[in-house]
Specification:
Number of domains: 2
CATH topology of the largest domain: 2-enoyl-CoA Hydratase, Chain A, domain 1
Strand order of the largest sheet: 1-2-3-5-7-10
Order of helices and strands: HEEHEEHHEEHEEHHEHEHHHH
Structural class: alpha/beta
Helix content: 40-55%
Largest sheet: 6 strands, mixed
Strand content: 15-25%
CATH superfamily of the largest domain: 2-enoyl-CoA Hydratase, Chain A, domain 1
Oligomer: single chain
Number of helices: 12
């Protein structure tokens, strides 16, 4: 399995691999990259396949949207308006599955947001490890304006990122957040003047991280993500368990050996 064979099979996704950093672009610009059932199914398949690429372990993923107007403007309202309750449940469960697949990828994931990231778009961005955004980025969970609630994880992840009370205010009001406010409340990590500089910095950030042990990063991500749902004592127990497991790894032996020998470590991810 290779990236070209995966990418060619999708209607609404573009994948580009460069130096073991993968860029995954939503490519439905005429609909502002809105998430319909087909696009969610493609994201489900793509993220599942990406995880299985063993021949050249990825060092990071940049998750973005094609065009200048939107990362993902939301779910496809035209399609949703015709759904039965059962179809809507299937749609929500699929969107949640995709968000979990992105969140659980064993390497850093940056959501590079240009333009609208509303509803399902904000929820997909929240599944990344952190969010970079351009000056024209707009965030929000406007589902209540449609008589709905966030269905792809927004009621859960937003509160963990910005705090419960602030998340309630954002969801209950359905208002849009300009990028400066998103930065202030911790939803966005960095702001950029344009998409090109954002993409360049995303790549530079992942390249910096790729100098470290990919196995250690995967373990740290696993512990931090799972720790969100644990008590502090249970989280510490998980931390010590994963910490000790690394002592049997080649990466730990290489990293400590390189430090003692005053040389650059060459990590294998094993």
């Amino acid at each position: 399995m290779n990236i070209d064979s995966i990418s060619d099979s999708y209607q609404f996704l573009k994948l580009n691999l460069d130096n073991r950093i993968l860029t995954l672009s939503i490519d439905r610009p005429k609909k502002l990259n809105a998430l319909d059932l087909t696009l969610l199914q493609e994201l489900d398949d793509a993220t599942s396949n990406i995880r299985q690429l063993k021949d050249f372990p990825l060092r990071g993923l940049i998750f973005t949207g094609s065009g200048e107007k939107a990362f993902i403007a939301g779910a496809d309202i035209g399609q949703m308006s015709k759904m039965s309750p059962l179809e809507a449940e299937h749609f929500a469960v699929l969107g949640q599955k995709v968000s979990l697949l992105i969140e659980d990828l064993p390497f850093p994931v940056i959501a590079a947001v240009n333009g609208f990231a509303l509803g399902g778009g904000c929820e997909m961005a929240l599944s990344a490890d952190f969010i970079f955004a351009t000056r024209n980025a707009v965030f929000g969970q406007p589902e209540v304006k449609l008589g709905l609630i966030p269905g792809f994880g927004g009621t859960q992840r937003l509160a963990k990122v910005v705090g419960r009370n602030r998340a309630k205010e954002i969801i209950f009001s359905g208002r849009n957040l300009k990028v400066e406010e998103a930065l202030e409340i911790g939803l966005v990590l960095k702001i950029f003047e344009d998409k090109e500089s954002m993409m360049n910095e995303s790549r530079a950030t992942l390249e910096l991280m790729s100098k470290n042990s990919p196995l250690a990063i995967a373990k740290a991500k696993k512990v931090m993500n799972r720790g969100n749902d644990l008590t502090i004592s249970n989280g510490l127990e998980l931390e010590s368990e994963q910490f000790s497991q690394l002592f049997a790894s080649q990466d730990m032996k290489e990293g400590t050996g390189a430090f003692l020998e005053k040389r650059q470590a060459q990590f294998s991810g094993k």
